[in-house]
Write a structure and sequence with these properties.
51% strand, eight-stranded antiparallel β-barrel, mainly beta, 5 helices
């Protein structure tokens, strides 16, 4: 069976492409008009002169043409001098090169590497609209800018992705020349388009970064952005990817700008680590087909590869599998975890997180309604299990910059009879987040331990009397805990007493981030109130000091 192995060789090769849309039809037309007037001496077709108007003729006027049907962009065409061009799928990562020729005056033949496409063509009156009529469908192309697929808006921008690892990259940029009409602003909010080798298709991932956060690219400048996609996407498997983000040429922040969706191609290389995998297979007495997933990486940056290898069954319909995970290097080959229900993310039994100058390996054991993470890392050339391994589900959230362990408990409510508290029955499943940072000195994670604060201190942190508002809703405020990373947990409850001495009590909590003045969105409802931040149950000051 083919082994999936994660590589760690850095590469500095890529190309960049872009798609665009205008914030308004009027802004798009104004932009086209300005670009055409100011730059015709550079981007004209071969048989036009600088003084010529934009003419409806072949070869097609150089630049980017957008093909749209039913209000949706299908392709972007780049036409160049010499009857050549390229085509980009608007929602994909593939770019196809072509050459073209004209037959019988109005018939266009486009020659791709694997096929020819035939169409009748006609221009609109202004020459900036081209209709291609194929045998069974029609494309309407509109000329957009004098740019290229590498710089669609003609803004003089160049992007490259360097220092590529399975966890992130450095995005380097420069600006020179071009046809900038305002201030160039780039989003710090990205997605990836991933290529599937199995079906030769491209598909988009979730967004990552900070929505609404931007940075300005000055004219005649250069710079770099460090990009980490692990919080949302985890570790990338080897393959081809496109980094996808937005650039705006802003003339007036009140609503006059052009917007362009840039793409930067890169690859995460394959590093097969074949000899390390074979060493594990031999030591375990297994078959090579049992080695279903591997992570090969220079974890301690000593120039020598190490590997974690999963041997076992294929995932079942519940995304779990039974097997073993081994650690192997040049001298050591040892089984570190055996489990009857490893949880599989996509096709990954083993996941990695970058922490400081090190890497952490995560394995998850699945239960009926939760998972528990087991964490391993390198320390002075040897692997070790983390001190917080097995406490709960380890992950990196998007509402704080720290690491989290989600702890499963049954503490949402309790029933008992007065005088028989020792027989109390706790029910109601909860999952509460506790926060950790990586401590370089110890080479492991440490918890942000909480301390009790007063309701006055809570009011000062929130800017209003939160405790009073909780009481007005019919609850009792129990204890307020503030952690060293600015997270405040407020435990509150409600008690109901029956006629025969029975007592029912439910427990709730608030999670508030003092650093960004927001409540946690506990259940993905996009809310920002104290009620939306209730993870249920009762928070402790710490889970490592119990």
């Amino acid at each position: 069976m083919k082994n999936r192995v994660v590589g760690a060789i850095l590469i500095g090769m890529l190309i960049m492409s872009a798609c665009s849309f205008s914030n308004s039809k009027e802004a798009e037309q104004n932009s086209v008009a300005v670009s055409s007037e100011e730059s015709s001496e550079v981007f004209i077709s071969p048989d036009q002169t600088p003084g010529d108007e934009f003419k409806a003729q072949m070869p097609v006027h150089s630049g980017i043409w957008q093909a749209a049907d039913y209000g949706r962009t299908n392709y972007y065409y780049e036409f160049s001098e010499g009857y050549t061009g390229r085509r980009l799928g608007a929602n994909a990562g593939d770019v196809e090169e072509f050459s073209y020729e004209v037959n019988d005056g109005d018939n266009l033949v486009m020659h791709y590497a694997d096929r020819d496409e035939y169409a009748h063509y006609s221009f609109g009156e202004d020459g900036k609209h081209l209709v291609l009529t194929y045998q069974d469908y029609q494309q309407n192309l509109q000329w957009m800018s004098h740019g290229t697929l590498e710089d669609l808006g003609g803004l003089g921008l160049t992007f490259t992705a360097e220092d590529i690892t399975p966890f992130g990259c450095t995005l380097r940029y420069s600006q020179s020349g071009g046809y900038v009409t305002g201030e160039i602003t780039a989003d710090n909010y990205y997605s990836l388009i991933a290529h599937s080798g199995e079906d030769n298709e491209w598909g988009s991932t979730d967004y990552f970064g900070t929505e609404g956060q931007t940075f300005t690219i000055e004219k005649d400048s250069s710079g770099e952005i460090n990009i980490d996609w692990t919080s949302k996407l985890g570790m990338l498997v080897p393959g081809d990817y496109v980094l996808y983000f937005q650039i705006r040429d802003i003339r007036n922040v009140g609503g006059d700008w052009d917007s362009f969706d840039y793409r930067v191609w890169f690859s995460v290389p394959q590093n097969d680590g074949e000899s390390l995998i074979k060493k594990v297979v031999a030591e375990a007495g297994a078959d090579i087909s049992d080695a279903r997933y591997s992570v090969v990486y220079d974890f301690d940056s000593d120039g020598v590869m190490e590997a974690f290898v999963y041997l076992g069954d294929a995932p079942d319909e519940y995304a779990t599998c039974a097997g073993e995970v081994w650690y192997v290097d040049g001298d050591t080959c040892v089984k570190i975890k055996e489990c009857g229900s490893f949880f599989v993310h996509g096709d990954k039994v083993i996941d990695m997180y970058p922490v400081g100058d090190s890497m952490v390996i995560e394995l998850e054991e699945a239960y009926a309604t939760s998972t528990v993470s087991y964490l391993f890392m390198m320390d002075n050339g040897e692997w070790k299990e983390s001190a917080i391994s097995g406490l709960g589900y380890f992950f990196k959230p998007d509402y704080v910059s720290d690491y989290c362990v989600s702890v499963s408990a049954y503490d949402s409510c309790v029933d008992y009879e007065e005088g028989k508290e020792e027989e109390a029955l706790y029910t109601g499943h909860t999952w509460k987040n506790y926060y950790f940072f990586y401590d370089k000195k110890s080479g492991d994670f440490k918890e942000y331990v909480g301390k009790e604060i007063s309701e006055d201190e809570l009011e000062a942190a929130c800017g209003y009397d939160l405790a009073a508002e909780i009481r007005e809703a019919g609850y009792q405020v129990d204890v307020v805990i503030k952690r060293e990373n600015g997270i405040i947990n407020v435990n509150y409850s409600k008690t109901e007493r029956g006629d025969v001495g029975s007592v029912y009590k439910e427990f709730h909590n608030v999670t508030y981030n003092e650093l960004n003045q927001r409540y946690a969105d506990a259940w993905g409802t996009n809310g920002n109130s104290w009620q939306d931040s209730d993870f249920g149950g009762t928070y402790l000051k710490a889970i490592t000091e119990r």
